[in-house]
From TrEMBL, chain A:
InterPro entries: PhoU, PhoU-like_sf, PhoU_dom
Function of the protein: Plays a role in the regulation of phosphate uptake.
Known partners and oligomeric status: Homodimer.
Name of this protein: Phosphate-specific transport system accessory protein PhoU
Alphabetized NCBIfam families for the sequence: phoU_full
Alphabetical keyword list: Cytoplasm, Phosphate transport, Transport
GO cellular component terms attached to this protein's record: cytoplasm
Similarity-based family: Belongs to the PhoU family.
Gene name in the database record: phoU
GO BP term, pick one: negative regulation of phosphate metabolic process
PANTHER family the UniProt entry points to: PHOSPHATE-SPECIFIC TRANSPORT SYSTEM ACCESSORY PROTEIN PHOU (PTHR42930)
From TrEMBL, chain B:
Record organism: candidate division WOR-3 bacterium
Protein name per UniProt: Phosphate ABC transporter ATP-binding protein
Keyword ATP-binding: yes
CDD domains (alphabetical): ABC_PstB_phosphate_transporter
InterPro entries given in the database record: AAA+_ATPase, ABC_transporter-like_ATP-bd, P-loop_NTPase, PstB-like
NCBIfam families linked: 3a0107s01c2 (TIGR00972)
Pfam families per UniProt: ABC_tran
Keywords: ATP-binding, Nucleotide-binding
Length: 224, 249
């Protein structure tokens, strides 16, 4: 029979999912605003971000209260520590969506440059990584989480590619440096969202298997 | 390794209280034995200084080796064993004697009569439990006038006076308030530099705070024995998790 504490943990998981859904919505809207060069959509993202910020605080306070009152151990403790870290990562993702929206506000005032197709491919992968990382957390699926982490290097490579393309633009058409820098920043923000999705996966693996995999620590420890 | 049990079984008449216990307790660590009431943890503790011998119809099989000696061998010197392996109980059991005489009791039993030597032992033992300065002017007062926490400290000092190696503690803080409990816990952490401590506790947080290694017992079996960090963050057995997280027991 589930205890009161079990119910609280379940509810908390639901709250994290609700927050993650808002973050996904925020990032999707930011990319839509970028695609349509629509500052109105960009404005909506600020409203969503405010909600995300409030949710972050509520989840953090709940975790602190549950730790203080229930003094959890084992997988309960790992879950709450994981949620505290994940909560912070999700809030940061929301901030990156706002950063992308800021880029849109700047871009609409600049001359158009040839669309950078890579950025949409990158955005698609980043969106999938976020969605799947949240799914892996919800399903406690460490195997899936591990696979998502492996995609981070693909995103890093795409960001480097976009930077190269943007540098070429800047050299060839100096009047479009302003726009090129904005795309450069969008790529940078997308890459950070992918990093944060990877963090969620690392937390999922920690919660599920009590393994810390970040910074290749397992390999380092084996070598010692 | 200071204590090693192999295939240890203990029966009270036909009831088997300990089932095939195999464990190794390391020197200068605090080892906590946890588990629900009736799981055999106090019985196991009493095995280590043969306190169960006082209970009628107890039968033990297997071996318990302390410092290389099988303590259930007919050659084992029981008096010496209980000097080496001392015990503290749930409620402080100070004798109705003065504070000085409580601490000097053991050394006197061991034949020390020289007043100067006894004074040195009493001072050293009371200092080891952080109590000498508090009671140095009232050593002739009855131990029973002390607070429960001080009485428990005194009982620990009384043990230390006979220079044991291993301290067995059966719920030593269960009669104390949280502040007194914290002080006793600090004392135990300090004492482990010189002694091996085995503590039975119902207080999960206490085990998490002070133990280096933890054994979880259930229905007479040792379900899991591991480092405290492992037990409290990632126990291997679901039964251990269910117990330490308060889901049963």
């Amino acid at each position: 029979m589930p205890t009161y504490f079990d119910e609280e943990l379940k509810k908390l998981k639901g709250d994290v999912l609700a927050m993650a859904t808002l973050v996904e919505e925020s990032i999707s809207k930011a990319l839509e605003a970028l695609k349509k060069r629509d500052p109105k959509i960009a404005q909506e993202i600020r409203v969503i971000d405010k909600k995300i910020d409030h949710m972050e605080i509520a989840i953090e306070e709940r975790c602190i209260e549950l730790i203080a009152r229930h003094q959890p151990v084992g997988s309960d403790l790992r879950f709450l520590i994981g949620v505290i870290k994940m909560n912070n990562d999700l809030e940061r993702m929301g901030d990156h969506a706002v950063n992308i929206a800021d880029c849109v506000n700047f871009l609409v005032q600049q001359p158009r440059i040839k669309p950078v197709s890579n950025i949409w491919t990158m955005a698609k992968i980043v969106n999938e990584m976020l969605k799947e990382s949240v799914e892996s957390f919800m399903n406690n699926d460490a195997v899936k989480a591990q696979k998502i982490c492996e995609r981070d290097s693909i995103v890093d490579e795409m960001r480097n590619e976009i930077i190269r393309i943007m540098l070429t633009y800047m050299i060839e058409e100096p009047d479009k440096i302003g726009s090129a820098i904005q795309y450069f920043l969008v790529a940078k923000n997308l890459e950070r969202i992918a990093d944060l999705s990877t963090n969620i996966c690392e937390d999922t693996i920690y919660i599920s298997q009590a393994r810390i995999i970040k910074h290749h620590i397992e390999e380092e420890r084996k070598e010692k | 390794m200071i204590i090693r049990t192999a295939n240890l079984n203990l029966f009270y008449n036909k009831f088997q209280a300990l089932k095939n216990i195999n464990l190794e307790i390391k020197e200068n660590l605090i080892t906590a034995i946890i588990g629900p009431s009736g799981c055999g943890k106090s019985t196991l503790l009493r095995v280590f200084n043969r306190m169960n011998d006082f209970i009628p119809n107890v039968r033990i099989t297997g071996s318990v080796i302390i410092d290389g000696e099988d303590i259930y061998s007919p050659l084992c010197d029981l008096i010496y064993l209980r000097k080496k392996v001392g015990m503290v109980f749930q409620r402080p059991n100070a004798f109705p004697l003065s504070i000085f005489d409580n601490v000097a009791y053991g050394p006197r039993v061991w034949g020390i009569t020289n007043r100067k030597v006894l004074e040195e032992i009493v001072e050293r033992s009371l200092r080891a439990v952080g109590m000498f300065d508090e009671v140095k002017d009232i050593l002739k007062k009855s131990a029973l006038t002390l607070s429960l926490e001080r009485q428990q400290r005194l009982c620990i000092a009384r043990l230390l006076a006979v220079e044991p190696e291993i301290l067995l503690m059966d719920e030593p803080c269960s009669a104390l308030d949280p502040i007194a409990t914290a002080r006793i816990e600090d004392l135990l952490v300090d004492l482990k530099k010189n002694y091996t401590i085995i503590i039975v506790t119902h207080n999960m947080q206490q085990a998490a705070r002070i133990a280096d290694e933890v054994g979880f017992m259930l229905l007479g079996e040792l379900i899991e024995f591991d480092k405290a960090k492992k037990i409290f963050t990632n126990p291997s057995d679901e039964k251990t998790f269910n117990y330490i997280s308060g889901r049963f027991g």
